[in-house]
User: Fold this.
Amino acid sequence: MSDVLVKSVADKYAELIKQKENEDGSELSILNLGPTHPATHGIFQNVLLMDGERIVEAESTIGYIHRAFEKIAENRPFYQITPLTDRMNYCSSPINNMGWWMTVEKLLKIEVPQRAQYIRVIMMELARIADHLVCNSILAVDAGAFTGFLYVFQYREKIYEIYEELCGSRLTTNMGRIGGLERDLSDTGFRKLKAFLKEFPAAFKEFEDLVSRNRIFMDRCIDVGAISAEKAIAYGFTGPNLRAAGVDYDIRISNPYSSYQDFEFDIPVGKSGDTYDRYCVRNSEIWESVRIIQQAFDKMPKGPYHADVPDYYLPPKEEVYNNMEALIYHFKIVMGEIPVPKGEVYHSVEGGNGELGFYLISDGSRVPYRLHFRRPCFIYYQAFAEMVKGHLLSDAIVMLSSMNVIAGELDS
Amino acid sequence: MALANEIILQKIQEKFGESVKNFTEPYGLITFEVDKSKVIDLLQFMRDDETLRFNFLTTLCGVHYPDNEIESQFAVVYHMHNWMDNVRVRFKTYLNGENPEVESATNVFLTANWMERETYDFYGIIFKGHPDLRRILNMDEMVSFPMRREFPLEDGGRTDKDDRYFGRLPNNENLN
Amino acid sequence: MSNEIKMVEAPAGVAGEGFFATQIDQVVGLARSKSLWPLPFATSCCGIEFMATMAPHYDLARFGSERPSFSPRQADMLMVMGTIAKKMAPVLRQVYEQMAEPRWVISVGACACSGGIFDTYSVLQGIDKIIPVDVYVPGCPPRPEQILDGIMKLQELVKNEPMRRRNSPEYKALLASYGIIVN
Assistant:
């Protein structure tokens, strides 16, 4: 199939190739990059029209991992939709999970207790750190620096250990419940978090010292794949990629959710929107996330970790075995028979890559009538074909990794 | 919040009169319907008007309502966002069930390009004037539009599920 | 940490003054099993867990897979990690066909094994519909330990594989059942 596509593009450019050849004797060639190229981290196909090493035209093809999330969501009760959100941006699944729960809570008008909100904030910021760590360390790998990756991946394991304390799994977390969390963060969890906050800054500083001012890395990244703020907004950029272009748009500030207004943090912005700025913005965001986690950790309120909403929140197992009422609730929730009002809500959170939106249409039945995910990757990846024009082939690779396009989120 | 919802309503109604209707505010988000012929004018007006300044097209998606009248079986939903005053707005336009067509927004917002391709891929809604309206996520060979509600979710090729235990027959036929 | 170096166990054979005789099958099997070059065919979430498996904490290199081979022509072990959509299936098939014999396939994760939670119109319901699979690793995604276990299971298979297996009519029939013709 991929061959067929290359051919169709080749036909499209056949005339241009011929024309160029007649003009100045230059030989344009077609190069297929992907869908399984080691440097593309995920499966994207780009068919490039090359003039030597330079890219003249590019055409992106996506959909190689289309899993029909939106169609599945129309057939599953609300509880069974979190596993889908996990698998969207799998580098920062807790953010997706919480975003989905907050959408449902908005629809049901449920107030979440403060402790749960704070723990959610901690988890979301840990997820942001994990997401940015992957992006930046892999960017360094693509620019030829493997060591940084080995330095920071240790700490991603530590983040996963903290997730495990709260939800039992590492990557696809399925974390949280309607109205709060499935369990309180244990003492071990807090201990691990404390250790993380103590050790991580030193290690991350080491990574920054190693990579950020490295001459080769800077040469590879500066002025590569720059995008202006106007263009970025027109293309629907959000998140770190937009902020690198100098626009301080962050949903945590503009529409605070889950008590973000209680914390003090800055929005790092870049200037030129090039690869190096994207790298720097992500690095600074990691420091801001550490700050937020520290504040949430210090100010952690006492109290319940979930709202008192028996219609939606699964009762603890002991109660289910010993209490008739709890058994009924358990049965109803597990079968998805929860009372849901009719209505339409849109809720967005600041995901690892930008504005992650959930547009939910409920018709009052046990499944959503329609659930649309606003997936930031999908929206900004369309600019890639334009951004690579005129760059070298090797620059296209670092641009792609600095944009942090996650295939699962891209292809829904 | 500098820009009150009332001002937005007033501005839009002044400009578009009868073409916009059913203003509601579910969960604090202004929602209304617009006639399909006016969608692009509305997007342009909302973006360029000096008071409204809705500079960002957050998302665009399709919805299928097979139970509605034939004239309104499809909807395209637009979410816009004004970053200066931090206000969001949502509007829908209903399309004909047999011949869903609407003007493309790609000339107003570049970002609409892939969103419209996705909507076309899922629902078969034609965006007139789109530069490259092809399938984006599914295979080019596919003939049906998978997000239409009559299309089954499951793949027919799975053999480890015995359909009798799930209360259905192969190929998702009805039981009777 | 102990300083003891563990040597691999020698296959059964006859040892004497200055010589060691054994079956060539066993020597080749032993050598192959300790130097499986993986081709990571990572498509989604499981690929991220594979990254963790490669990273220092779990370190796949300990099992003789130091060098991930991104070209199918030099790879021994195709590791399919993540959902394979129907759009992707021909590409996977092509990659498999480009690999040289002997080749092994590990299917990592529920999606690659059976389609997983994505029982949908766009997802291939298990890669064994298009290529033969040697080891299945369940999990969504499997933990790095599970992936390592899968590789160790495969090493066992490789070690005990007769040298002539790839020429046998059974093997050819297996490939033919997938529509892959070898001459």
User: Anything to note?
Assistant: The radius of gyration of chain A is 23 Å. The mean pLDDT of chain A is 88.
